[in-house]
TrEMBL record:
Keyword Membrane: no
HAMAP family attached to this UniProt entry: RecX
Name of the protein this chain belongs to: Regulatory protein RecX
Compositionally skewed regions (Basic and acidic residues) per UniProt: 164-175
Residues in coiled coil: none
GO CC field: cytoplasm
Biased composition (Low complexity): 26-44
């Protein structure tokens, strides 16, 4: 359908093209691009803000008092120690004292690490007993002495030692004597036999076995090689 203009000219059909546009041809909804100077300024402000925030965060996390600085140093010491190996609380306290950490700060951070489970004397003692029993075949008296040297209290030590029985110790001692006995040399004649007997009993005694039990175990192992009727020499250990 065509209409006539007031001047008599005919215009073409209405197609909708150009509706909603400004005469400049730019869409009404399209935002104008900011000037280049404004964009640069905004970028500088944004970047500067992030830098300031980062510096403020770093400054906020840094120790600001002597007490905080000492606590941070104590934390580094403990982390190094615990990364190297498991330690008892007493061992860690001794290390902090050697590094001149105050008793107040040491107590505070050790308590905190206990709360977090990073220090656990009961678990440490149980692990220590298992490890030393397997590697050194130590009897409970020797293990108890070593735990005391590491600052484990008697009650905690006893709970850890309850993992071991007398039969466990006897079996470990027999295995150790079998490994150390040299039948072709130690049982060659009576003099060598007595010398070997004393040596092996003393070895077990150093590992915490009572002299009577140690002699009994050595005699049992020697009997496996045909040596019977052995008597305990005087002044054996």
């Amino acid at each position: 359908m065509s209409d006539s203009t007031p001047h008599g000219r005919r215009r073409g059909p209405v197609t909708g093209r150009g509706v909603g546009r400004r005469r400049t041809g730019r869409s009404l909804g399209a935002p104008a691009a900011p000037p280049a100077s404004s964009a640069l300024s905004a970028g500088q402000n944004t970047g500067g803000g992030r830098g300031d925030a980062g510096r403020q965060a770093a400054e906020g996390s840094a120790p600001r008092t002597p007490e905080e600085a000492e606590y941070a140093r104590a934390k580094e010491i403990l982390l190094r120690q615990l990364t190297a190996a498991a330690r008892s609380r007493a061992q860690l306290a001794q290390k902090l004292a050697e590094k001149e950490i105050s008793e107040e700060t040491a107590t505070r951070i050790l308590d905190r690490y206990e709360d977090l489970g990073l220090i656990d004397d009961a678990e440490y003692a149980a692990m220590y007993v298992r490890s030393r029993s397997a590697s050194r075949k130590l009897a409970r008296p020797a293990l108890r002495r070593e735990l005391a040297q590491k600052g484990i209290d008697p009650e905690t030590a006893q709970r850890a030692l309850s993992q071991r029985t007398e039969e466990d110790e006897r079996e470990d001692a027999r295995a150790l004597v079998r490994r150390r006995l040299r039948p072709e040399r130690d049982l060659a004649d009576p003099a060598q036999r007595e010398k070997a007997l004393r040596r092996l009993v003393a070895m077990l005694a150093r590992r915490g076995y009572a002299p009577g039990m140690a002699f009994e175990i050595v005699r049992t192992v020697m009997a496996e090689h045909g040596e019977t009727g052995l008597e305990e020499p005087p002044g054996l250990v």
